[in-house]
Amino acid sequence: MSIRRKPRKRRSRKKLAYAVIAVAFILAFFLAYSSLHSSPPKVAIVDHLSFFPEQSNPTFVEECINILKSGGLSWKYYKGEDVTVDFYRNLPSYGSSLIILRVHSAIMRVNDEIIPLLGLFTSELYSDAKARMYRSDIYFDGEYHNDSLFMAYFPGEDIYYFAIGPKFVEKRMNGEFKDTVIIMMGCEGLGYINPSTSARVAYTDMAEAFINKGAKVYIGWDGPVSVNHTDQATVCLLQHLISKKQNITKAVEETMVEVGPDLSFVPPSRLGYYPDKAGNYAVPNLRSSLTVNVAYTSPIPRAPRRSKYTTRG
Question: What is the pTM for the complete model shown?
Answer without folding.
Answer: 0.80
